[in-house]
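2024-03-11 09:14:02 DEBUG pipeline.ingest accepted 1 chain
2024-03-11 09:14:02 DEBUG pipeline.ingest length=489
2024-03-11 09:14:03 DEBUG pipeline.predict start
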Amino acid sequence: MEEPQWSSPGLDVATGRYPLSVERHVMRMVDHLVPGVTTVTPHARYYTLHGLVAAHADAAGLTAPAAQELLRRAEVALAAVSFAHHSPAHEWLPRAHGADALAHRLRSGSVSVTESAVPGKGGYVGNAWGFWGPYAKSETVLGILNPGPMPVPGPQLDGTAVRDGLGELLDLAAEETLRVEDIAPLGARLCVCAGGERPDGTWLAHLLCRPDAAGTGPHSMTRQQTIRLLARIVDTHHVAHFAWDIGSVLAFGEFLATDAVADGIDVAPVWRGVVLRNYSVGAWRRLWSWLVAQVEGMVPVGELADRFAEELPDVTVAAFLSSLPATHSTTGVPLPAEHDLRLTDEPLPVTELRVLAVGARRADELSGRVRDAFLGPRGVELGPEWVGRWLDERRPIGLRDAARDLVHILVARSQRVALAKARRRPDGSLWLPTRLEKRGGWLYRTSQEGRGDVGLRLWQLGAVLATCGVLRYHDQHWSVTGLGRDLVA
């Protein structure tokens, strides 16, 4: 070394996801129940578009770079057509991927396909393969594509259907410039909302819904049963908000046991257990987010514990538990205790601690497959059984004192989780994924924690089914289409 130099930082504290690691069981169960749809795949037409690109690339013998350019240009064309066709009637459906990035150019009346398709800054998306990445696993699970470094036709791909439905996009992708007024009339055939009335959408609907569809993965039957269950709920209830309204039916009430169709669907009790467990998962996430938000500057752990305690009523743990709402009817049917608690005006820490206590009570009330799906791996820290034991052991003491202990438990767990995810980089520095850093007995945060619930993919599945013709959203509510009735009957 010729002169002194600065070394690389020894520790890089960066934002991380799932700081308490309470989500794993729910996420694993949802992956089993809804294979082929994820939280980032809301559009049926990207499944068929990527199939179209794969079929064309295979037939034309395109190299990977050429296929990549075709895919990006085709996604730009789809975003442009969908932007031109967008209307208030489509507000329920997310915009086509990349449409927001192109919105400024599209509002000017035209867009350069070549400039927009270039990866990086100024393009419609930075990823070299566009939006294929988020959809690739789902398309492979469904058999639309085969695994590989570029889109390759899979055993379930119907090349004729995707060409008949979306083939015009390849012509648009070959254009240098697209004028909004010229492509607007094409929206009725090519928009992300229009797949339900096109051959590519009908083919995808059969692939998703038919129990006799071969080669769609080891868990295809669970997906098909899930779709049948959701369609039955839509057909028998007023569903305005897809995930919210259907989630309530799945979690609470007698419908799953008394409806002749729902009672015969094997995954129905599994869904009940998963949705109920997700209330507890969401409670931990909300509670932890609230705690992290209290850390301004350097805060001692004990002071954070005191802030939490001050939000709670000055009662014993036993009195707190006795104040919980009823969780089941006289016939053993789950009542919407968690749902109702979150409609109250109590402080967030009180509400979410009550939701956790309700979940702990359900561990002893549920039975059979509902209980198995609710509990998952047994005895894990912060799981419903753990919460139940923790509360029972502290019944005689004050709730505020118990809450102080809980803060220390959560801070210690967050540090263990972050260290378990930490990675040493090639330059010797340490990457630590956490938003809340602990030094000695002091805490400081680098950013706020999210508090949203774990996605159960219900909304995304509903959107995919609506854009391939199985469901329909009209006049502020959902319904089953004629095609949907034929496929899920």
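2024-03-11 09:14:41 DEBUG pipeline.report Residues 263-445 form one domain.
2024-03-11 09:14:41 DEBUG pipeline.predict end
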